[in-house]
Write a structure and sequence with these properties.
Blueprint: H1 2-14, H2 16-39, H3 49-78, H4 83-112, H5 117-149, H6 152-175
């Protein structure tokens, strides 16, 4: 196990953005599969692997790079240690990044579902306030710990690990009205 951890640390130090994009894509895909298997209770022949690939793409191309870049920006411009620094980072994260990122997420998922822009706007109007409210029930506490005690190079991993459950929720929430029809 320590060999795997050392290998991960080495790759993370050599390719920080790429490794964090890869882990975000993997964990977002896993979150979608948990949503489909455990929440939606789909049988294997009903699983939407295209949807899972879309979530993997969102993690790889958007979530991983965006969070890594954002955390680096916060670290550089606000600092890395201290209680006040942590509170400032959490405030910036939750008041600036989270609302913007969640809206992007809902829009991108809608586009991947093949929805028209008017339908995506309606989903934003109907779903976004509840998604943002749910965000505020979980993420401020996670980010207090993350920004307060976790070194920068592991912050995306911590967030993406907690986000496994969050991604399950987002996947379910953004797909609950999709065109999937049960074969029962």
């Amino acid at each position: 196990m320590s060999y795997i951890l050392r290998g991960y640390q080495k790759l993370l130090s050599r390719f920080p953005l790429g490794m964090q994009a890869l882990q975000a894509g993997t964990l977002m895909a896993l979150g979608d599969q948990i949503a489909q298997n455990l929440v939606e209770k789909r049988r294997f022949d009903e699983l939407d692997f295209k949807r899972t690939a879309g979530f993997a793409g969102i993690g790889f191309f958007i979530a991983g790079p965006a969070t890594r870049t954002w955390y680096g920006f916060l670290d550089k411009n606000i600092g890395s240690k201290g209680g006040i620094v942590t509170l400032k980072k959490v405030a910036c994260d939750q008041l600036l990044f989270a609302p913007f990122f969640l809206s992007i997420l809902v829009v991108v998922i809608g586009v991947l579902q093949g929805n028209e822009m008017e339908s995506i706007k309606q989903k934003l109007k109907n779903e976004y306030p509840d998604i943002l409210a749910s965000n505020y029930k979980l993420w401020p506490a996670v980010q207090l710990l993350n920004f307060g005690i976790v070194p920068l190079q592991y912050q995306v991993l911590v967030v993406q690990t907690v986000a496994l459950l969050w991604n399950t929720y987002i996947s379910y929430r953004t797909n609950k009205d999709s065109t999937f029809k049960s074969k029962n």
